[in-house]
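User: Teach me something about this protein's shape.
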Amino acid sequence: MWKWLPATQKILLAYDQFRYQMLPYTYSVAWKVTSEGYTMMRALPMDFPNDPKALATSDEYLFGPAFLVAPVTAPVTAAAPSRQVYLPAGTDWVNFWTGEQLAGGREISTPAPVAMLPLFVRSGSIVPLGPVVQYANETPDAPLELRVYRGADGAFTLYEDEGDNYDYEKGVHATIPFLWDDKTQTLSIGQRQGTYPGMPAKRTFHVVLVRPGSGTGMDAAKSDATLVYTGTPMQWRQ
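Assistant: First, the predicted structure itself:
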């Protein structure tokens, strides 16, 4: 990326760093692929088979259970870049960049400057994010940011292992389940299952309830609560 102009380098670096921040989410979704036959990059009909508009939308995709990605694949107006995005029906969506909650089942016009990939998150999603690192296993016990996208109940299972061998095929790994109850605004963390060499005895989770001005974009957010988890069930209520 160093061959690009400085302004472009800045954009590329930001997305490259965010790719590392997303490792806890991506690695957990990869485990779903391995253990459940899941698909990481998903056409809209896979999750919304009864939505005729979703069936006809071919320029958007889902990245795991949380993200709706709408790449810019055609020229946009330089003065006011934007693109039309269809938000599938049956759920609300949250603008990743602004925290604005939007009803599904409609098409919207969303800003699409070169540095801002149109990105939305399904309501009820729990997205774990890590720190900016230089390589995957640099800080295996670092605190994780848990972004909770309210508006619906949700669940996510965090998957962890040694990260450098195939022992996971022999059951050497651990999972931590998260549940969000939207009615009571309660986050539950269940019993950790499994173990692996070097597994941290404790994990620190910074809970972020996403809303306009909090938990938006790529930057680390100010937490609504900091939870120290030792592997046994615990709850936090707003």
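Now, about its shape. The longest strand covers residues 174-181. Residues 126-237 form a domain with the Immunoglobulin-like fold (CATH 2.60.40.1180). If you'd like, I can walk through any region in more detail.
User: That's plenty for now, thanks!
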